[in-house]
Design brief:
Length: about 325
Amino acid sequence: MLRAREVGMVGPEKIGRMLDATEFSDAAKLLIDCGYPDMSDMSLSQVDIILEKKRAEVFREISGFKYALDILDLFRIKYDYHNAKVLIKAAGANVDAAYLLSESGSIDAEDIANAFVSGQRGDLPPILAAAFDSAAGILSRTGNPQLSDIEIDKAYFNEITTIAAKLKHPFIIGYVRLLIDSANLRTIVRSARTGRDKGFLLTTLIPGWSIGIEQLTVTYEDSIPPVFPGDALTLASRLGADAMAGGSQTAFELACDNAVLHYVTDTLFIGFGPAPVIAYLAKLEWEITVVRMILTGKYTGIPADVIRERLRECHV
């Protein structure tokens, strides 16, 4: 079923036509035959609501298949932790950010908000509950939202690592490992470009499946490529080294995204097991991201060539 649906998703040909469209409305109308409502007369905030709704609806549908629940959680819990970040930073800034909460998580956004306000975390997963308290404490002590975000991110990766270990499937383990390695590679490059030291790295790197934190920090001041040899992140590693030396940060970030995309799209001829589910959900996420980027660009008048440079590769 999911493999059949992939045929109707937004693909390279459709993306090209959207980019070539003269007006925002023309680009939006091209999405109708891919299952999207007519967004040609909508504002960007309305477009965001539609895209969020589409993701949440697919997640709810997939949750009806028991065999897919644990796999789905690899995607849903990201939005639980997103909601945690929103609530903590909104409280720290004394603003109402309810409009930023996502309904795509495994836990109802309102339930997470109530747990945060009331301090009653008993109904939340233990890892998320602990992250709530720890990140809120960090923000209160330091006033630094980046540090609280790091604490939340660590909890998120800890939870998906736990899920992968529980499922014991090589494809799932490889997928989570790649997510962690990619996140660590981004941290190294961003830290180098902003002049962070190894002490900062020790507090931000995620314990990974393939590369230890000690090895990452030892090579931090030398070169990235030897740390990630012969795997999916080879190109990203090379571009990361270039970015550390003042090269393109955008090219590096896209290479990290594309490494994960290639991992899931190389499963085209696998018909059963977790791979088709992960591939479909990952493609859905990338489709929504691409649609948002193009429509936002068209709405705000960004040239097509500039939008194209920022797009991830699309193999849906």
